[in-house]
Amino acid sequence: MKRTIVALMVSGIAFGSAFASQDNAANVAEAKTIIKAFFEQLKGELEASMKVGGPVNAIKNCQLKAPSIAYDMSARSGWSVGRTSLKLRNPANTPDDWELAVLKSFEERKSAGEDPQTIAKAEVVERNGKSEFRFMKAIPTAELCLNCHGSELKPEVVEALDTHYVADKARGYKLGDIRGAFTLSKPLE
Ligand code: HEC
Asked: Domains in the chain and their CATH numbers?
């Protein structure tokens, strides 16, 4: 951790203003590690609750747990950690302007033939006069996801989603579609 900060400061000095437009390898690596832990925790929780009570139970559990897992991950890592999408289930995950533009570019990159497993974007941006490192990574739709984000949902799943997410748009996905993205940020000073 200390090492990362030192490396950042050194490259900041070395590259001067050019630094702002550079992707930072150490930050990218750290973001990817956090995403892996976040994803495993979400997936573990999802699989466990599906085993206990099927997708309807998992939807209720996900509504409770997903936001708190993101919150814990943010508190532990010092990064802001979340998920977003062009077609949302939970409006609390609405993308900001930067995220919206990146999500659209991910769709274009996928259409151009890039593998959604590896589509990602890193950028140093200015927000409220401060430099911030931002990172997004596409989340491809896997088999498991189709239970709740696919186009052939069980009637009880539809009912549970209609009850808990009145404005749900996150249905009709196919295997390999980009379901959304992990979105992380960290202040640079
Ligand atoms: C048991 C049903 C269920 C399954 C299976 C499921 N999800 Fe979800 N998903 C949800 C619910 C419920 C939410 C809303 C969570 C919340 O309230 O924050 C959600 C939210 C999301 C979001 C956040 C953006 C948004 O639309 O609000 C992403 C991204 C996402 N899911 C991706 C996936 C992926 C990828 C998989 C497969 C690995 C998956 N989901 C499997 C139910 C499910």
From this structure: 31-187 (3.30.450)
